[in-house]
Amino acid sequence: MIAGSLLPHAEMVHWWFASGFLLLGLVLLAEGIVGRQVWGARRWRLYLWPGLVFLMGLLLWPVMALYTNSTIHMVAHGSWAQALMLAGGAELGVVHGKLRSQYWRLCTALAMIVSGGALLAHEQQHWLFARAAFLHHALGWTVIVGAVFPLVQTFRPRSFVAATGFAMTVIVVAVMLFCDRDVAPIFGHLSQLAGTPHR
Q1: For the chain, which ranges sit under pLDDT 70?
Q2: 162-169: long-range contacts (C-beta < 8 A, 24 or more apart)?
Q3: In the CATH hierarchy, which top-level class contains the domain 7-178?
């Protein structure tokens, strides 16, 4: 009983990562609005978003080890960790000049597809089971569809639409994560199997 009370509620982990995604989205939006050339006038700013993505990937490893209650959750969190680290690492390599091909930027689109697929695979309930189930489905499809923006950026790096679309996708993901509750109704509906509603 005491050990159980020391653990934060499950949505707290989602809120921590939501804060990270919100910061990431705002950095991407700022870069998209002013353009990469202006943004890169201070070289350190080019490292902000890939460094943040890589750090969030690293932080997903302890989440995988400490906050998972099933094999599918462990596989999903491990997939997200690897995908974020791949995307962040590839972009850091491009920014630093160690990776010269523009196609390394495809890693971000790949990471989004893997992450979206993991979100869909690890939610085993239907859309209207509870708010958490709905959000996992919505998050999965949002991330998969949003992968088109970094894909376009690979071939058209100066595209304002692609840059702002990518940033807004990340911000929408952050908002969805902030809305998470373990057991709460969605659109007035809550499955009888979901359990006692929280908040």
Answers
A1: 1-11, 127-130, 181-199
A2: 163/28, 163/31, 163/32, 164/29, 164/32, 164/33, 166/28, 166/32, 167/25, 167/26, 167/28, 167/29, 167/31, 167/32, 168/25, 168/29, 169/25, 169/142, 169/143
A3: mainly alpha
Listed by start position, the domains of the chain span 7-178
Q: Which residue has the tokens 């495809």?
A: 106
Contact 112, 127 (CB under 8 A): no
Answer whether 191's CB lies under 8 Å from 38's CB. Answer: no
Q: Is 195 left (phi over 0), alpha (psi -120 to 50) or beta?
A: left
**What pTM did the predictor assign?**
0.83
For 130, phi and psi rounded to 5 degrees? -165, 170
Tell me, what amino acid is at 19?
S
